[in-house]
Design brief:
Radius of gyration: 17 Å
Oligomer: single chain
Number of strands: 0
Number of domains: 1
Structural class: mainly alpha
Number of helices: 4
Strand content: under 5%
Length: 99
């Protein structure tokens, strides 16, 4: 593993953690339009980090990684938006005040 690969992993880790924090703010403040965009960034980082190891262990299946990024992006977007909608309904019905 070369120095550039170490730097790529470091950068991916930095971007991933920053994106997670930003996504939390999107969810808290109901920024629905930003959720899918940040989810794509998070998915690319996750697959990049995990894929970095998997490519060396299994082989160079880049199409598999591309479809994994898409699946994770859609799943993450749907999960974040679902919890935002659920939380909004809970606040509207006064449920979150009781919890």
């Amino acid at each position: 593993m070369g120095v550039l690969q170490f730097l790529a992993v470091l950068l991916a880790s930095f971007v991933y953690v920053a994106a997670k924090a930003f996504q939390q703010l999107n969810v808290v403040h109901d920024y629905y339009k930003l959720v899918p965009v940040v989810s794509v960034v998070m998915a690319v980082c996750e697959v990049g980090l995990g894929g970095n190891i998997a490519i060396r262990a299994v082989g160079a299946d880049l199409w598999g990684l591309a479809f994994t990024v898409l699946a994770m992006s859609f799943g993450a977007s749907a999960g974040a938006i679902s919890s935002m909608v659920l939380h909004k309904r809970m606040r509207k019905n006064g449920i979150s005040k009781r919890v």
